[in-house]
Amino acid sequence: MILLLFGAPGAGKGTLAEMLTKHYKLPHVSTGDLLRYHLSKGTEIGKKAKEYMDTGLLVPDDVVLEILEEKMDEKDCHRGYVLDGFPRTVEQAEALDEMIEERSAKISHVFNIDVPRDVIVKRLCARRVCSKCGAIYNVEFKPPKKEGTCDVCGAPLMHRSDDKDDVIRKRLAEYESKTRPVLDYYQKKNLVRTVKGTDSAEMFGKIVDIVGK
Ligand code: AP5
Ligand code: MG
Q1: Is 171 one of the catalytic residues?
Q2: Which residue is closest in CA terms to ligand 1's atom 2?
Q3: What is the crossing angle of helices 165-174 and 117-125, to 10°?
């Protein structure tokens, strides 16, 4: 089963992916997390991606496709996965279709996570993520039990370097110009279900109702 989470920066894709991967026992495939891993290890891919990510621009398609294809072939992805933050251009969507077809799989659903823009900006400024396990927090809406410390693994929380006002604006502009057209691409294939709201538990419930228990 391949579930695709589509939505603007800060819509809550990662938060919902955490809930869905636990529920369906599927791996979470986030191109943003994969790129940040490469950045932290200083790999060639990380070096290529850095200046784009730091300024809120999309990383070139060929770089992202390379890491995605590698991930897709890992053993834990053979039963399916929850895809978060990919595809973000129509070219990526076309390449994904090819990769999936080559592996005799298919996309089960595309969920359009629809959250008002003013909510998004507030959320991103207050986000914190675990430096070790990647768990997502928010100092306003979902604080950890102990300040600055991950509830799950006890590692320190960090502020993502692209969660700064000017970079957030650039990420939202990239979303509007390059990523929103991907929705039309999937709408034509009749795969899109829009999930509107600001309550993750409620949105998770709506997704499970559509996908099945
Ligand atoms: P990526 O890491 O994918 O970031 P993004 O798409 O900008 O999305 P975010 O991770 O910021 O938001 P989210 O929707 O996951 O929200 P979250 O659950 O964390 O990409 C980063 C960069 O990598 C890109 O800018 C680009 O450079 C590059 N990149 C990645 N993929 C690429 C691709 N395919 N092609 C090219 N470049 C690519 O929630 C946000 C906050 O809100 C958290 O604090 C959370 O606790 C809080 N929150 C969530 N839900 C709720 C709720 N219901 N109520 C209150 N607070 C909530
Ligand atoms: Mg995310």
Answers
A1: yes
A2: 32
A3: 140
Q: Which residues of 105-132 are buried (b: 16+ CB within 10 A; e: fewer)?
A: bebebbbbbebeeeebbebbbbbbbbee
Q: Which ligand is nearest to the CA of 65?
A: 1
CB 4 within 8 A of CB 109: yes
With a cut of 70, which residues of the chain have pLDDT below it? Answer: none
Is 169 part of the annotated catalytic residue set? no
Q: Return the DSSP state at 197.
A: -
Does pTM surpass 0.90? Answer: yes
Concerning whether 160 is annotated as a catalytic residue, the answer is yes
pLDDT digits (tens, 9 = 90+) for 112-161: 999 999 899 999 999 999 999 999 999 999 999 999 999 999 999 999 99
Q: What is the pLDDT of residue 213?
A: 79
d(CA 213, CA 209): 7
Q: What's the CA-to-centroid distance between 12 and ligand 1, angstroms? A: 7
CA 11 / ligand 1 centre spacing (Å)? 7
DSSP assigned state of 177:
I
Nearest to 84 by CA among 20, 170, 171: 20
Which residue type is seen at 115?
A: V
Q: Report H helices in 58-195.
A: 61-72, 90-102, 117-125, 165-174, 180-187
Domains along the chain with CATH numbers:
2-26+79-115+172-212 (3.40.50.300)
